[in-house]
TrEMBL record:
This is Fructokinase. InterPro entries: PfkB_Carbo_kinase, PfkB_dom, Ribokinase-like. Residues 14-293 form the Carbohydrate kinase PfkB domain. Keywords: ATP-binding, Kinase, Nucleotide-binding, Transferase.
Length: 321
């Protein structure tokens, strides 16, 4: 039986005025994992409104379990207003007091207990309100799952006390370079330049921080330069990325795509070298289509088949790492 994953956090709609696109980093992750065939429970909350129906449609399209999907009467489904500049740049306004700020603790606990996941994923944006933060803590207190934290700091919603608490709750933490620099400023003696992630000072400060927060692993994504994995047992694995095929469209959700394959690799027992290479390749591929997730869900099967062909039977059926 495939190991289950539970994802906690925001499902929302990016409002471009002329079009609406379903998103939210946790929901992107949940959809990718479901696309790869994993049993996924997404704990979130929406309103009974047009945007909520868009989110429900995505639950149905990806065959996501609805046990964790809450609906709040009179609440607004999460939204982000997106303004596109003349130069193609994007300006985001994250709307406050949305349905995902009101996640109910009892319902969240019931959803997680019903599936007993192997991995529990969470971030920081959905903790901005005490109600959803309390629901997350209620689940964290009872779950025995490995806790995967995608820090995913958003400008205007960076609360160091929430970050500190989240790091204490996590087993594995994933950050990008900018987020790593912020953690260095908060929690380390020095702020080494992450342009060279292989330098001794970066490794030293990362491991000191891992020790202080009792982390089993730290994953750092570096865009086109790939990703780095450090573990508490001394592992240091780097993959320097894969050039994308075709035309670059946007990098929306590339980190969420990376996370999905990283977790898939953990559950399937891939080596870390395989996992990083495959996660980077899949993340790069998402830059070739608009939005965070593909319209063609058959692409997940094609990726799985390509990985199957490249794997030995031991790699494919090995025990979870």
């Amino acid at each position: 039986m495939e190991h289950a994953v539970t994802v906690f956090g925001e499902a929302l709609v990016d409002d471009f005025s002329t079009r609406q696109v379903v998103g939210g980093a946790p929901f992107n992750l949940a959809r990718h994992l479901a696309g790869f065939g994993l049993p996924v429970t997404m704990i979130t909350r929406i309103g009974d409104d047009a945007n909520g129906r868009l989110v429900r449609d995505e639950f149905a399209r990806f065959c996501l379990r609805e046990g964790g999907l809450q609906t709040g009467a009179g609440e607004a489904t999460g939204s982000v207003h997106v303004e596109v500049g003349a130069d193609g740049s994007h300006r985001f306004t994250i709307v406050p007091d949305q349905a995902y700020d009101h996640i109910d603790s009892a319902q969240a606990l019931a959803a997680c207990q019903a599936t007993q996941p192997s991995i529990f994923c969470f971030g920081t944006l959905a903790q901005r309100d005490p109600r959803s933060r309390a629901a997350l803590h209620a689940v964290l207190e009872q779950t025995q799952a490995v806790r995967f934290l995608d820090l995913n700091l958003r400008a205007g919603f960076v609360d160091e006390t929430i970050v500190f608490d989240s790091l204490q709750q996590a087993d594995i933490v994933k950050v990008n370079e900018d987020e790593l620099q912020q953690l260095f400023k908060w929690y380390c003696h020095t702020c080494p330049d992450t342009v060279n992630m292989e330098c001794i000072s970066v490794d030293t400060e990362c491991r000191a921080m891992m020790h202080n927060f009792s982390l089993s692993a730290l994953v750092v994504t570096m865009g086109a330069r790939g990703a780095l994995y450090l573990s508490a047992d001394g592992a240091h694995v780097a993959d320097h990325g894969t050039a994308m095929d075709g035309t670059f469209v946007d990098a929306v959700g590339a980190g969420d795509a990376f996370n999905a394959v990283f977790l898939l690799g953990r559950l399937r027992g891939w080596t870390m070298e395989q996992t990083l290479a495959r996660a980077n390749a899949f993340a790069a591929s998402t830059c070739g289509h608009a939005g965070a997730v593909p319209q063609d869900l058959a692409c997940y099967g094609r990726w799985l088949e390509a990985w199957r062909r490249s794997a030995t039977s031991d790699e494919l059926f090995g025990a979870p790492g």
